[in-house]
Amino acid sequence: MSTTATLEYNGEKYEFPVTVGTENEIAIDIKTLRAQSGIITLDPGYKNTGSCESAITYLDGEKGILRYRGYTIEELAEKADFLEVAYLLIFGELPTRDQLDKFHEDIKDQSVVDEDMKKILDSFPKSAHPMGVLASLTSALIAFNPSSVNVSSEEEMYRAIVKLMAKFPVLVAWTLRKKEGMPLDYGDDALGYVENIAKMMFKKPNKEYRKNDVVINALDKLLILHADHEQNCSTSTVRIVGSSHAGLFASISAGISALWGPLHGGANQAVIEMLEGIKADGGDTKKYMAKAKDKNDPFRLMGFGHRVYKNFDPRARIIKKAADEVLGDLGVTDPVLGIAKGLEKEALEDQYFVDRKLYPNVDFYSGIIYRALGIPTEMFTVMFALGRLPGWIAQWREMRLRNEPIGRPRQVYVGENKRTFIDIDKR
Ligand code: SDX
Question: How do residues 160-184 score in pLDDT, each as one tens digit?
Fold first, then answer.
């Protein structure tokens, strides 16, 4: 295999080193391209452009492979719990029992959120979208934790990381409770990490807290499945904001805003709204398949397609199976599950989708489980953010520890040539 690549242009030849990844992914290292040739590359959406070398997550879109630090998503979803996976993503190894216990204790020590944060939450109308509330509250955390802003040592980063792992679930629960008009709870340090999240979110003020293993296990698995996904839109946002040394909380707040988009994490909400719309329209899936294929119709089959996966999203397989199990265990029937399965079957047999390698992605079935757990549709992307938090943190930490340069892409200017200013009275 060649260790260099040559670009030939205008009779000149330029040579570049080739980088080969762990799984033999090949990249042409063009760090010296402009210095050598004055030329840049152009790749809207970065469909062919690697932004970094990373040791955290590996995807093979053609084979439908997803691994966190080398462990398959199937094994982790089956055998690990979310806090264990968070530790693995952030620090690179599965923790020993003592390491995990210490990580959890350090998190518990930071799980109280300044009461004045409630005043910021109260300033939002109940109609505010929870993703906007969560992004704002996450950014507001900076004001109450100034020592977590300009961090550069591993120790300072660790302190900022455990603060965020502790306070973010409280903000998620408060965002839900605010929407529901329920009192804001701090949870209970005696509980497991995900069990505590479930209690903060679901405990009714007038009822004793009763542990529901089906809910906790479903939540834990969904959070694991969403925990990281290499250089997706929101993670790339976290990295580029973090590359200016804006600090962890600000970087995560930016990532939340990027995730909100319906083409990205907002798709899980859009899927349920789409399925509800099809149900309300008599369940005519063929009509919506036609709309999805009509270039003149902006409608897309939400929860389908992926920038990287050109095969089944392995997470979608696991979530689809879990949806049947969780609804069965909870004794819930949801007509939109049948509509989703019907749409999936039709799409997988339709030439338009087959030609474009469009398969169900992580967002296609997740909302059906969230709904069965009693989570409102507008909170689905907040749940995605809760799961993705350790992945964002891991990617931010890797970028900072590697002293990556500030992210600043080039452009090709296609605007006006130089021209002279004209006074307004002469225009
Ligand atoms: C997530 O990147 C990640 O890793 C993201 C994520 C993560 O864990 O972080 O996996 C989470 O964001 C999953 C994706 C959730 N989004 C949706 O479900 C929204 C619906 N999907 C699409 O909008 C789309 O598939 C994207 C945005 C996911 C991917 O878009 P791309 O890679 O830019 O592909 P494209 O828009 O260029 O589409 C290629 C072709 C086009 O048709 P042609 O112009 O070639 O004729 O496929 C068509 C598109 O029109 N197409 C769809 C479609 N998705 C793509 N047509 C109908 N319905 C769709 N859903």
Answer: 999 999 999 999 999 999 999 999 9
Taking 90 as the threshold, does the pLDDT of residue 148 lie above it?
A: no
Ligand 1 in contact with 363 (CB < 6 A)? Answer: yes
Angle at 59 between CA 244 and CA 406, to 5 degrees: 10
Q: What is the mean pLDDT of the chain?
A: 96
Ligand 1 midpoint to CA 307 (Å): 6
Name the token pair of 49. 């452009």
Angle at 230 between CA 258 and CA 274, to 5 degrees: 50
Mark whether 129 is an active-site residue. Answer: no
Q: At what angle do helices 213-225 and 82-91 cross, to 10 degrees?
A: 20
Going by CA atoms, what residue is nearest to atom 41 of ligand 1?
356
Q: How confident is the model at residue 150 (pLDDT cuts 50, 70, 90)?
A: confident
- Token pair of 111, please? 């799980």
The phi, psi pair for 312, rounded to 5°, reads: -60, 135
**Over residues 100-129, mean pLDDT:** 96
In this predicted structure, what is the pLDDT of residue 54?
98
278: helix, strand or coil: helix
Q: Which atom of ligand 1 is nearest to the CA of 233?
A: 2
* Integer Cα distance of 237 and 81 in angstroms: 27
Whose tokens are 């340069």? That residue is 405
Task: Indicate the pTM of the whole model.
Answer: 0.96
By most ligand atoms within 8 Å of CB, the mutation choice from 49, 60, 89, 264 for ligand 1 is 264
DSSP 8-state symbol, 425: G
- Helical pair 267-280 and 285-293, crossing angle rounded to 10 deg: 130
Tell me if residue 43 is catalytic.
Answer: no
CA 361 to centroid of ligand 1, rounded, Å:
9
